[in-house]
Design goal:
The chain is of the alpha/beta class and 175 residues long. The chain contains seven helices and seven strands, in the order αβαβααβαβββαβα. Strands 3-2-1-6-4-7-5 form a seven-stranded parallel beta sheet, with helices on both faces. α2 runs parallel beside α3 and α2 packs parallel to α7.
Length: 175
């Protein structure tokens, strides 16, 4: 085995990325405070051609040097939009025909391994604050909750890790 050189990876240019057909997925960050987490979500969203990221509440917006350390420029390729109020973001997504899922441990949540998606639908996934999760009033506005099965003692994953797992699963099911 030989590691590929950067020139062998067939990376899209920024212009090609902007024109590429996107995954019908919007990632919503609800009061995410860590610039590392935000940057990592941008980078993962770039990797899987996520349509857009909605940044809500206290979630920082680009440009920011600490975010850039993790995003590595993905904050310039992936489209994003800011909302002061997360409920307003969910309302806009519903008005545009998106099915919105909170990524949260809830009564009646769908385990990620049991999730079925329809290829002709548009989806949004909402990830919450590192400590408090997705606010209950936001969960109430969602069409459902998705939970990542966990088997250890913590039953908690970092926001950026959660985003990676969820985005990968949506990409596998929708591409």
């Amino acid at each position: 085995m030989r590691k590929l050189k950067v020139t062998e990876m067939n990376r899209l240019t920024v212009e090609e990325f902007k024109e590429a057909r996107k995954l019908p997925l919007v990632v919503v960050l609800d009061d995410v405070r860590s610039l590392h987490n935000i940057g990592a979500v941008f980078r993962t969203s770039d990797a899987f051609l996520v349509d857009c990221i909605y940044l809500c509440g206290i979630t920082a917006v680009p440009p920011h040097p600490e975010m850039h350390k993790t995003a590595l420029g993905a904050e310039y390729t992936v489209d994003w939009k800011y909302f002061k109020d997360t409920e307003e973001a969910v309302n806009e997504l519903h008005a545009m025909g998106y099915t919105v899922f909170a990524i949260e441990q809830c009564e009646g949540s769908t385990m990620l391994d049991k999730l079925t998606l329809e290829p002709d639908k548009k989806y949004a996934v909402l990830l919450g604050n590192e400590v408090k999760g997705v606010k209950q009033e936001v969960v109430n506005r969602c069409d459902g909750c998705i939970e990542i099965p966990q088997f250890g003692t913590k039953h908690s994953l970092n926001v950026s890790v959660t985003a990676g797992i969820i985005i990968w699963e949506f990409a596998c099911k929708l591409i």
